[in-house]
Amino acid sequence: MAELSYTSRREMDQYGFHPSVTILAPLVCLILQSLLPKTFPRLGILDLPLIATIFFAVARRSQISGTLTGTAIGLFQDGLTNHPFGVFGIAKAIIGYLAASVGFAVDMENPVNRGLITFLFSLLHSALIFLISRWLLADPTFRLQPVHELLRAVANTAVGIPLYFLLDRFKTRD
Amino acid sequence: MDSFFTRYKNPLVLIAVIVAQVVALAMQVQRPAQGLGTDMPDGRESTLSRRWISATVTPIERILHGSSLKVRGVWSNYMDLRHVRQQDAQLKLDLARIREEEASFSEDAVQGRRLQKLLDFKQQYVSSTVAAQVIGTSGSDRSRLILIDKGSADGLKPEQAVITPDGIVGKLRDVYPHTAQVLLISDPSSGAGVILASTRIRGILRGAAAGEVQINNLTADSRIKPGEQVLTSGGDLVFPRGIPVGRIESIAPDPQHQPYTAISIKPAANLTELEEVLVITGTQSNLTPSAQQDAAAAQQRADEMKRAADLVAEKLPSIHPDEPIDPNNPSAPDTPAGGTPGAPSTGIPHPKPALHPDRYSPNDSPPAESLTPGAAAPASSYTPPPRAPRSTPKQTPTESTPTTSEPPQED
After folding, report:
1. CA B397 to CA B395: how far, in whole Å?
2. What is the domain range of residue A130?
């Protein structure tokens, strides 16, 4: 018996996107991420590109696709900061890979599961950024602020769930 | 072998992507260290990539920023019309107050310039600036960076200072043809030379991880107090001297850098809500022609005020500065009431000598340096007059009324 059949979860729930959506949705997230803190400084705590990474990785359920999407979004995000290229790139590549892996096992149509995964991946993303900054870049000024990172995870979850439902409209079944 | 790659295709791709980025990170970190002192904060490839990313994002940000400005403009015009009359009255009051202040400031400015000449003080005056609008941010609260809508086409170069009328903002990092990145002073990788306004202590301003601005290269000093103003020192060759930075908010020991203290600064410019900024594109050691005209006008105003004050002084009948004054003889008929200008303490009325001096009378008690701690109090020269007997009809001549200075002895 084949490992995967047409009735398997992977085949049933694997989605694709129009190329324009694949490019524009992360780009809009990146631009909003750049613009919103100018008017509303407190929104700098959000990480919309992370939400886009998780969404596309989970929806496609392909680890390679998740890795590459996460890398592209992360490197683009690095280009807007004064960090060297790769800080967000590495972190989001790992998140994309793990999100695609989790997508096999968990029903991602359920809002509770979506919220939980966004919360946990947001925390993991913060931890990865901390490790990259402290170990790879040896930046002693970078400090992990647990409460701040928890708030970031909550904010990402709160924004992520409605955003996922919005992006669901652009899904096409492969 | 083929099946190995097929089976572990996904983790292998992840590992390859991560390794490639780690190598790229290492190369980027190495290159700026080798190229210290150059205008480029990154390597050529990184700068090119950032330029492409900026070119992708900037047009959209420009359009969105322009649209929001138009919407905001329409709304603010409506609101302005509603309150224009009240504002007009308020502005007239403000104008009158500012004119008064200007007169005193012009005199202070003239005096300041005179003192600077005396001290041969070299100051870098801002000669040219470029106004720019903030069109975006880095989007990360770990990277305090903003994007402005002016670039190398407008004469901007890396490392130029960026300010607002309130105080310093940061310096230019990457400059593209039509946009530029500004590294805020609150970013951990930025720094600026500063001086405390009243104590004249110099320090280095740095951004902290949480977005605070700190001086953390000073040891504990009792003279440094919260509320003290912090100015740029000019020592970093980026910010001209004397531009406001902020005020000291708190002083606490820095546990990670003992024995230094972490002096938190509240920035004078609102770094979180910047709309317009000025990029300093040129400085000079002399005043600009327009500033020199202002200075000449201020000098002329100050001279006119002095002449007016002299005329008033001549008309006052009681002022005769040419006559000699004897400060020890204040009751002399020639000394005017209120003293003579220029002679200190001539106008202070001297007390009349006491009729009955006691230990509180001036010049009656011995000087403090002649006293010995623990010794008995010296006898006062004061002797009160004998009191009149109350209603004691039978008092023998041998019985005397005790004085206040000599209490009756008890057996």
Report:
1. 7
2. 14-173
